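Re-running the complex after MR caught last week's input typo. The corrected sequence lines follow. Everything else is unchanged.
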Amino acid sequence: MTHPLIECLHQDQVLTLNFLAQPPEGMRIDFVEALAQTLSDLPARSPVRIVVLRGDMGLNLDLAHWQSVLLAQPMRVHQALQQMHRWRTRTLKTLPQPLIAVVTGPCAGAALPLIEGCDLALCDGTATFSLSPAQADWLAPEGLEKSFHEAPRGPTGSLLPALAGQTLGAEQAQALGWVTMAVSEADLPQVLGSWTQSLLDKDPLALQFTKETLAHVPHMDWDASVSFTAAKFAEIKALQAAAGGASARAQAIAGFLAGQSKPGLKG
Amino acid sequence: MLQIEHPEPTIRLIGLDRAAKRNAIGVELTLALRDALWDLRCAHHIRSVVLHGIGGHFSAGMDLKDFFDSSSRDPQTLRQARAATEEWRCHLIRDLPQAVFVAVEGYCLGGALPLVQCAQRVAAHPQAKFGLPELNFGFVPGGQILKSVGLAVPAKALSYLALTGQTIDAEQARRWGLVSEVTPRPLDQALAWARAAAT
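Corrected-run output:
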């Protein structure tokens, strides 16, 4: 499914989903449906190794439109809301590709759980973050509330400004853990480029397994995490051997031990 | 493998002492750590513990040569070492009756990070480097290490460290919650905390 407001740019194994400007009234239901379908199709797009979400992140709802659809097709609205909930809880976290969200300008509404579901998030000084009145009053808030409780690591009460409808800046979003890093507008392209290149340089299987480990292990108890890791190590060793990756790994270790390379340790 | 001192009767100073390997945690070091932590559980007169690295680095993480593909250790020894590692990493260090403080200089990577995460406070030198470089070698970071680091830093910081394999400096580690204080004399700071906690 395609949508005129979702631009798909595919270059060098990086798929960028660029959200074009929403209508002034806000986001309509067909956008949500198209985005859900696009995200669901990603696992099958094997040449894609990294997904970048960027563009207009002011994804507030066109309430009048959603109300009219609700009256005519209530199930459609409930399904769309469910899909939005799943972005955060499942769809994005279970994608094999790492996701990077890039926030420039206002970020609100459905964009917030999208960003929370991404592995990495980068924003510049123009970014602002806010809950829309629609989310506070109309949308089932349980997903976002949980999302905000899990994401931030600020002092107690630091969520209050957001929940009270205030707008947060880039530095505050970084301090709360909503984004990985806030950088200047001038630095953003270079930082994004270095992140994507760093991810592209990784062994694809190891990258995928690491993302899987990140998705599951934090919720396990310690002994379960040991078992999970043992099973995953055995699985990846077998898969890397089948793909010829074990020798590359052996070379990387041998080069490191011989002092010929220090991958990732230059910084 | 470990240099154990008592600057005061109620404070135990434990130095990771494998400087030639940047204190990488190999078989002997992990077994020594397990034993030292067991000993601490029963040392009720000790009130505070300070962990640090000898030779300018805290620890470069697990010793790749000792533990993984190119290990020349016999399988039984490896099994024991891995079991000991899980024991101290997942349980012993988390259940200590003493207050734990850590001083970090140089590298603090991968398998060493749970020691930092478990500490009540962490002092780090401005030039210290923290990271999860496993993916740079085609390895997946251990689930227990990710779980541990995830208890200290935001989810997106954990993903950054694990997926990019890039190191961060002490100031960034402080912003993300892994480090309490950045100071040019981290061991002095950790000892000061230990003294305050022991009184």
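None of the earlier attempt is carried over here. The CA atoms of residues 123 and 182 of chain A lie 5 Å apart. Strands of chain A lie at 6-11, 14-19, 50-55, 57-59, 99-103, 106-109, 120-124, 128-130, 168-169, 181-183.
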